[in-house]
Amino acid sequence: MALLDIRNLTIEIVTPQGTLKAVDKFNITLSDGEVRGLVGESGSGKSLVAKAIMGITKDNWRVRADRLRLGDIDLLNLTPVQRRRVMGKEIGMIFQDAAAHLDPSEKAGDQLAEAIPCDQFTGHFWQRFNWRKKQAIALLHKVGVKDHRKVMNSYPFELSEGLCQKVMIAMAIAKKPRLLIADEPTTAMEPKTQNQILRLLDKLNKLSHTTILLISHDLETVSLLADNMTVMYCGQMVESGTRDQVFNHTHHPYTDALLRANPDFSQVPHKAHLNTLAGQVPLLHHLPIGCRLGPRCPNAQKNCVITPPMQKVKGHMFSCHFPLNADELKGKKCQKK
Amino acid sequence: MSEKIIDIAATTRVQPLLRVEKLGKTYINPTGFFKRQEVIAVNDISFSLNRSETLAIIGETGSGKSTLARLLAGVITPTTGNMYIDGCKLDGSNTDLRCRSIRMVFQDPETSLNPRTSVGQILDAPLQLNTDMSVSKRTEKITDTLRLVGLLPEYATFYPPMLSSGQKQRIALARALILNPKIIIADDTLSTLDISLRSQMINLMLELQKTIGISYIVVTHNMGLVKHISDKMIVMHQGKCIEQGNTEQLFSKPTAALCGQILSNQYNMKKHC
Amino acid sequence: MPNINIFADEHILSPAEQTWKHYSSQQIAMAALWALGLLLFLLVFAPLIAPHEPDIRQAHLLLQPPSWDEQGTVDYFFGTDDLGRDVLSRLLYGLRLTFGNALLISFIALVIGTTIGITAAISRGLLSSTLHHIMDTALSIPSLLLAIIFISVLGPGLDHSLLAILLASIPQFIRGVYLSVYQELQKEYIVALKLDGANNYRIIRYGVFPNIIETLVNLLTRAISSAIIDISALGFLGLGAQRPLSEWGTMLSGATDLVFIAPWTVVLPGLAILVTIFIVNIVGESLRQSVIAGVD
């Protein structure tokens, strides 16, 4: 059974300028133990999806979905109390700027100890005394922090961003969640630290069998870790499939543009023009009708003013009227949704 | 008297646009009642930069590269060293020369634009403070600069909270360009942007360099970027410059310090190929 | 290429317009605003509206009940007190003494406190440190107590009590303004403005000021409520407005022993204080939220 099943998720934001559809009919299915990458530029709505799954929405958001299930828990119809219980225990979340997401007035060790739930305690009552501290140290070792004394006694502003992110991961896995949502954990980090964090996530996935939803704007970073990838543009899902399908048999022009935008710099001549899509991501106030990539797409034709339907070929989903690598599709059975 | 002779001699050769000599910054933190702790953030940096050239400053966090960028922009005053633009020494008396010649684009576009002023007001402020242009001329200049960075003139009435981060970054670049500077300092501006936006900004910066001849000083950690856009580079470690010179030469014959940085970045490419 | 305005039909709202739009969409806030308008109108035109003089004593009309009671008359709408004075007129004149004075003090404290707070935030070193420590000391004493201390030196009376409350409210403003200006000065757009060549005045006026309006609204609301309570409290204790002035607190203190015989003389001034503070707080809080909503 799928761990996370989302069907037709729509998120609308009520602003003084009107109601804007930030995420439009988004579908995703996560099976147990997989690492899925969710890629999209800023403004594509990927963080909104993560927050909707977690349940941390702002007052002016309207979240609707045909199905939003985590295992056998229906996330749409939970009372706030039930939601809070699910939030920490079943789903864990880590964020982009780790130091800003930790309490600046408490030591990192205290915060970590606080995150450990009471009901994990097994043993005799006299062993309760230093149990939390020992668990916290064990968690720190699990995330790869060797010098636990320094980290336990420091405030967040004294720790480097890599260490802060590791502390946040430790806090997220303290309750042994089934799903870990990583919302751009390594953006704006140095490459060395980035590699450490990605290796850590990989280890967590393999050893503890935690499902990871890795959200990022960088296709390359996500591809190092993820088995399956989903690409979002302007609140809509444009392509989804295994890593091989998305990288080597790309169907949607946007995915192709993303792949070409990060070239291997040793091959491109010095100071040459880089390959990009013209134009910018449209503002939510002025979304184009039909296919949202229409105005920027190099292959756009008259039909693109109609929203393209989602097509599925052997688990590879895409929504484009004129997909790339179309000759591969001719012989295969198409399922139109 | 001797300075005059040196100046005359200097004008017969091609002068570098920017010359930095032994620039340094030391912070004094009082630790006890009478004790003081000296923290050397930047120590003894010297380099020169010509027109239409790009200099990249790389280093780990805490190596002092942000401090160096701010020293060059004029946000922090240096404790030692001198800077010369076109032969003119920069000190307290000619801050307007500095304002007009060196401009800075900050790292985070979300916090570098005042959310309560419109884009037009943000771009108007440097013009009002540094030039005597009339209102109509200023509006024209703002429209031209917005076109140069690829935005419609209507954006002048928008407010920053309504814009996406790519557009905010373009406006930050427009704010830097509007005074026709000779040098633009980009303090890690591209790391927070998405890939396609990053490519667009790079294309824009390179085009401006070709057409107007602006020099850039870029602070970054991305090695690929350094290789692509820079002519010269400086590697910083704990406030000191450990490696300096032409980019191509350094990449083809890397020394120990540079190796570590390049390899740690190339890890990304090799793992899942 | 002709200058085509694609967004011509879209009018971009300035922050002030957005604040007003958000504020006017809330019914409770608009009702409170109308009520505040009514209070201000009564404040200005009290002598013209009040049916009688506030201090005319009518010996044959002592303790007349209000008009909704069987024995009351419409001439004396809220009844009379133990000296035969019309309660409605006294309340209206008291509006000037309590509410009007509270507004006056709060605005003067705003101006003085903001100036000192901004100066403290820009300055560095010894001046800043000294101001900081003086303010911390002044703030550790509650405002009412501080006002009583001042009065014990100056002597009782309405003018002295107003001066005392003014001196006690200024430190709150200085502290609040200092903290928020200091935070604003750390932001990058202020650094950018400095690099543009702006002098301190421009930085404060165009960079910092539009962003601290929310703090100022908050401080002003609290100051007005606090001033109303302090003026009434001092009047009740006999240290503020002395009789026969019809300040609400003084009215309350004179009527405490009449609470069972003539409850309207106690309840009505108390209700007046309650309602005024309530209205001021609703308007202030809604305004503060509307100011923030524009930047969200």
User: Count of DSSP helices of chain C?
Assistant: 11
On the 0-100 scale, what is the average pLDDT of chain C?
A: 87
**Number of E-state strands of chain C:** 0
Gyration radius of chain C (Cα, Å) is: 24 Å
Main sheet specs of chain C: none
| Largest β sheet strand count, sense and barrel closure of chain B | 6 strands, mixed
User: How many discrete domains of chain B?
Assistant: 1
CATH homologous superfamily placement of chain B = P-loop containing nucleotide triphosphate hydrolases
Number of strands of chain B: 10
Oligomer: heterotrimer
Could you say what the CATH topology of the domain at 97-243 and 264-293 in chain C is called?
Answer: MetI-like fold
Beta content of chain B comes to: 15-25%
Named CATH architecture of the domain at 97-243 and 264-293 in chain C: Orthogonal Bundle
H/E series of chain B? HEEEHEEHEHHHEHEHEEHH
**What is the architecture of chain B at the second tier of CATH?**
3-Layer(aba) Sandwich
Query: What would the principal axes of the Cα set say about the shape of chain C?
Result: flat
- How are the strands of the largest sheet of chain B arranged? 6-7-8-3-9-10
Greatest interface and its participating residue counts: A-B, 39 and 38 residues
User: Percent of residues of chain C in beta strands?
Assistant: under 5%
Distance between the termini of chain B: 65 Å
Question: Which structural category fits the helices and strands of chain C?
Answer: mainly alpha
Fold and architecture overview:
Chain A has 337 residues and is α/β, with parallel strands linked by helices. Chain A has eleven helices and 14 strands. A nine-stranded mixed beta sheet of chain A has the order 7-8-9-3-10-11-13-12-14, sandwiched between helices. In chain A, strands 1, 2, 4, 5 and 6 form a five-stranded antiparallel beta sheet that branches. The N and C termini of chain B lie far apart (65 Å). Chain B is globular. Chain C has a domain of 177 residues: Orthogonal Bundle (MetI-like fold). Chain C has eleven helices and no strands. In chain C, helix 4 packs across helix 6. Chain C starts with 14 loop residues before the first helix and ends with a helix. Classes of the chains: A alpha/beta (337), B alpha/beta (273), C mainly alpha (296). The interface between A and B is large, with 39 and 38 residues.
